[in-house]
Amino acid sequence: MKAHYVRPLDLRHGRVDLNHGAGGRAMAQLIDELFARAFANDWLAQGNDGAVLPAPAAGERLVLATDAHVVSPLFFPGGDIGSLAMHGTVNDVAVMGARPLYLTASFILEEGFPLADLARIVQSMAAASRSAGVPVVTGDTKVVEQGKGDGVFISTTGLGALPAGRELGGALARPGDAVLVSGSMGEHGMAILAQRESLSFESAIVSDSAALHGLVDALLAAVPAVHVLRDPTRGGLATTLNEIARQSGVGMQLDEAAIPVHPQVAAACELLGLDPFYLANEGKLVVVCAADAADAALAALRTHPLGSDAARIGTVTADPQYFVQARTAFGGQRMLDWLSGEPLPRIC
Amino acid sequence: MKAHYVRPLDLRHGRVDLNHGAGGRAMAQLIDELFARAFANDWLAQGNDGAVLPAPAAGERLVLATDAHVVSPLFFPGGDIGSLAMHGTVNDVAVMGARPLYLTASFILEEGFPLADLARIVQSMAAASRSAGVPVVTGDTKVVEQGKGDGVFISTTGLGALPAGRELGGALARPGDAVLVSGSMGEHGMAILAQRESLSFESAIVSDSAALHGLVDALLAAVPAVHVLRDPTRGGLATTLNEIARQSGVGMQLDEAAIPVHPQVAAACELLGLDPFYLANEGKLVVVCAADAADAALAALRTHPLGSDAARIGTVTADPQYFVQARTAFGGQRMLDWLSGEPLPRIC
Question: A293 and A250 share a domain?
Fold first, then answer.
């Protein structure tokens, strides 16, 4: 049964007000005329406090992953908080080796935020959802007073199905394993920083934000026995490798010259005194697999448009101190420690 | 493998800083020393980007529900944002008729927020999780700059298992059905308002925040064919009944004198010019069932401590305008429309 509202929502000049989160008719209208229309699917149309979903196939386990998204600015070259919230959580499910099935979304809106911007974000998120084939099946909307939020925050949770027998995890790297990346490092982080600092380059640096489950499928079809998959987001490649090293109780020896970095990102890093290996990625994989499977993994990654610049960047070592080190272009060694010092907040 | 930090987290005098959300060592320490310790379970200990969970039993479907929690103040009589975030989402899963299995939690923290307060919230949430028997299996933490948030926001997503053949939903109310509530209306909303406005009463009005899955179990064991279950949160009883009326294409006729309201809540409403039927509840059920099952349903609710004040409050009617009406104590009729006018923001 559809409700009738006196006037349609003014998506051109209207603004978010406290009524949009208060549970009454204004909230119902925002949900009907914006969210439900953009994300249209049968589960959302159930209109209950939760979505009823079919069970996974026999033998499959479930994977749950969640992320809060607070990126600032909300719009950036290559995406916005809506597409990022979709991709970020689809990727967290995909790197567990699972097939992403459904997403939930909860929005925290700031009073006064333009409905036109909200509509742009929701439509971008809906487009990313359709393109990934992962529907947003239930959601929630809250509104906080002006000055108590920052436009829009979006938390997404993903549910996926993990095939029987598939075991991936950060604790499964073994000395001798090969370390691969699916492409160049640092584009998302630098796109956000450049936008935030109003830096202009000859051509804009574009976020790599993308849904990675297709790339993961291509990889695991070729090399089912991948040991670790991760998407190197906050803290970048260096921090992600340190997490894996700590979880697995191993070290890593990288070859810095082998790690792909877009020349514009390298130049911007030089200018800003930043290290691209600490910048966030939102559409890249780190892969750890047995050394004898590395060539097949690399070939599989390169067959997919999102993996065309895939590279083998190093080796897992036996190291009781779990150090991640890189041979520099000049033949020296440098430590890639965890991210520390100046934080780069609100990158995702 | 455990990491070693130079100094333990200062949970007494420390404050949230941007490093706690930046993905590096400070974030890892916050997760290790606060979140992982409080929520300790095997799934969280997997330490990956998502949690791997067993599939539900054969024949069961899945239920997903999500909520953003932005309640202000963060601490109130009867709970805090931590226990509320747990109960709110467990209840959204339970009112679908499903057994709540797992929760995810994403935190948006404001720079400068005292770690002692955060620890209190996380420990309260963990206690609510243990008491409900629903573990927090994966999570995320982000930090926003001072003045861009409001202490703590928590989004939770619940996954539940729905037994074969069970069908509950807002669209299933039929003319002639009985309408029941599990207890008195408006305590949560009034507890928050009283705290916010520094109202003092002879004794504090305490939020009814509670996990309802045990009460739902008791009810459905006695009356498997319940048509609709809802927890009347934002917008209160009146708004929830209007939602059901709209979804089912029916009206409702209530008996105002039959709707339980705690005398202190009634007095405070009188004082503030508020209607208790529009105040949020966080530990109450609305039940719609066949009229001939109403006595059994009421008896089942009353056997449970959370349902001791359960009451039959009205009847579903055939009404092409979907009106929710109440006979007043003076014999008149009044319309209970959707919540409109002054919003009561950030009640949950």
Answer: yes
- Taking one residue from A and the other from B, the number of pairs with CB-CB distance under 8 angstroms is 285
**Cβ contact B345–A98 (<8 Å):** no
**Does residue B105 contact residue B139 with C-beta atoms inside 8 Å?**
yes
Q: What is the pLDDT of residues B171-224, one digit of tens each?
A: 999 999 999 999 999 999 999 999 988 877 777 899 999 999 999 999 999 999
Same domain as A310, residue A217: yes
- The verdict on residue B245 lying in a domain is yes
Domain coverage including residue B303: 178-335
Query: A53, B61: Cβ pair inside 8 Å?
Result: yes
What size, in residues, is chain B? 348
Q: Answer yes or no: do B38 and B141 share one domain.
A: yes
How far from chain centre, in Å, is Cα B121?
A: 16
What residues 118-137 of chain A have any CB closer than 8 A to a CB of chain B?
137
The count of domains in chain B is 2
- Shared domain for B76 and B184, answered yes or no, is no
Burial B298-336 (b: 16+ CB within 10 A, else e): bebbbebebbeebbbbbbbbebeebbbbbbeeeeeeeeb
The answer to whether the beta carbons of residues B153 and A108 sit under 8 Å apart is yes
Of residues A19, A51, A62, nearest to B343 (C-beta): A19
Tell me, what CATH number does B154's domain have?
3.30.1330.10
Which ipTM did the prediction report?
Answer: 0.96
Are B216 and B246 in the same domain? yes
| A231 chain-B contacts, CB cut-off 8 A | 49
Residue written as token pair 């939930």: A104
User: Of A50-54, A98-102, A241-245, B335-339, which gets the smallest average pLDDT?
Assistant: B335-339
| B96:A50 CB<8 A | yes
Each residue's pLDDT tens digit, B244-255: 999 999 999 999
Q: For position B324, which CATH number holds?
A: 3.90.650.10
| Residue B84 sits in the same domain as residue B115 | yes
